[in-house]
Amino acid sequence: MTPRARAAGFTMVELVVVMILVGVLAAIGIPRLMGDKGMQAAVFGDQVVSGLRRAQKIATGHRRVVCATVGTQAVILRMNACTPGGLAIGGVDDGDFATTDSALSATSSVATLYFQPDGRVTKDFAGTTAATATIAIGFAGTSGGLPTTVRTINVEGTTGYVE
To answer: How many domains does the chain have?
Structure first.
């Protein structure tokens, strides 16, 4: 008698495990390959929040007014003077709090926020009017080119709280 030849091939368990692995990799990898802007917009939103909180900490720590200008793709922080010649402490000048992706955008209800030394956020350099601002972080959507808001950042003027 001759020994039986071993059957070649894969077992059902091996095939199922490979199919599950391929499915998981496809679910994670395809959105990244297709250019999913949701994650990039969320990261940009975190950078904007970080920049605004940094502006408040610098204002209270140095006892100076810090101006935060919210542009479409950057937050520019300047101390004492909000002119381009003012002392830059972050923003486009050194690469903080900015995105290079033209599809991402930040739109604010108040263009420039003035962080006062006492922690308040105002609409003017003198600090007479408290500013409650809303900043929408989004990206160009596919539905008619309208921006899709991913995150909304609220700035409370009387307390300086940024969320």
So the answer is: 1
Q: Write out pLDDT tens, residues 70-80.
A: 877 777 888 86
Strand 112-115, strand 66-70: pairing: antiparallel
% of the chain beyond a pLDDT of 70? 74
Number of other CB atoms surrounding residue 88 within 10 Å: 15
| CATH, residue 47 | 3.55.40.10
State the residue range of the domain holding 51: 37-155
Burial of 43 (0-12, 13-18, 19+ CB in 10 A): middle
Q: Give me 10's structure tokens.
A: 């894969």
Question: 139, 151 in Cβ contact below 8 A?
Answer: no
